[in-house]
Amino acid sequence: ITVGTLVGFAALCLISIDLANAEEEKNEGAALQEIIIEAPKAELKDTFEDFMPLPTAKFKVKKEEIETINVVTVEDAVRYLPSMEIRRRYIGDPNGVISMRGNGNFQTARHMLFVDGFPLHSMLRTRWNGAPQWNFVAPDEIGSINVTFGPFSPKHSGNAMGGVIDIVTRQQKSGSQF
């Protein structure tokens, strides 16, 4: 590096500083416009899932879809979903054991089954005798079925490692009789 290069570099630095100061003085006289930012009022969400979408696979089986398949028992309404198996050994077997996403049939306490928010599963039993009580709901009573795979449902405890099946029953029309 020569002395001439250093002198040229120093002169260039001084000129750039001088130009920056001149630009600042020129902008001081400019008036800025007032900007008003408005946003719609935030709405309250009912559940945590409504507020923050969860990174998990979910399925919703509607009544119209259930009517298109041959549903003899409630298990038949969800047994054809991907990554799900309902094991019934014979016709009329009361032990329809759930298996979801890699959890085996002997890990039934890791799956939760709800009907209108009421649990039909048993956390104390596992294996073949720990099947949920599917027979508390008739297939004709189903309005929709929500299935959440994995331990991502914040509404449920950590016991839902395999997933959650939430059955929503149809509402009775006023004035109807059984």
Write up what this structure looks like:
This protein has 178 residues and is of the alpha+beta class. The protein has two domains: 1-28; 56-169, TonB-dependent receptor, plug domain (Ferric Hydroxamate Uptake Protein, Chain A, domain 1, Beta Complex), CATH 2.170.130.10. 22% of the residues lie in helices and 20% in strands. It has four helices and seven strands. It has helices at residues 3-27, 48-51, 63-68, 75-78, and strands at 58-62, 84-87, 97-100, 111-115, 118-119, 142-149, 163-169. A five-stranded mixed beta sheet has the order 1-6-7-4-5. The chain has a two-stranded antiparallel sheet with strand order 2-3. 19% of the residues are buried. Residues 44-48 have low confidence and may be disordered.
Labels describing this entry:
5-stranded mixed beta sheet; two-stranded antiparallel sheet; 178 residues; 4 helices; alpha+beta; Ferric Hydroxamate Uptake Protein, Chain A, domain 1; 20% strand
Topology diagram in text:
Layout: H1 3-27, H2 48-51, E1 58-62, H3 63-68, H4 75-78, E2 84-87, E3 97-100, E4 111-115, E5 118-119, E6 142-149, E7 163-169
Parallel strand pairs: 4-7
Antiparallel strand pairs: 1-6, 2-3, 4-5, 6-7
